[in-house]
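Structure tokens please, single chain.
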Amino acid sequence: MNENSQITKTPAQLAEEVAYINEHRASQMPFDIAIDGITSRAGDAARVREYEDAGATWYFEILFGLRGSMDELLARVEAGPPR
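Here you go.
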């Protein structure tokens, strides 16, 4: 993992947890899995894709004042979701 990224679970850990959930669920209905974290640059599609491949259906970028100025935070929001 990039030392500038702060996500509490690696894609491998998430994949293990998703496999465990799927193994023990009674229902076959789809369900959402969300993960949040801090990536090193806006629009880091490769990083988000790793979590998608592991089973995540939602990725939330954590934004807070200690990450930079208001202009820097707005720039991340304006970058939109990774593509």
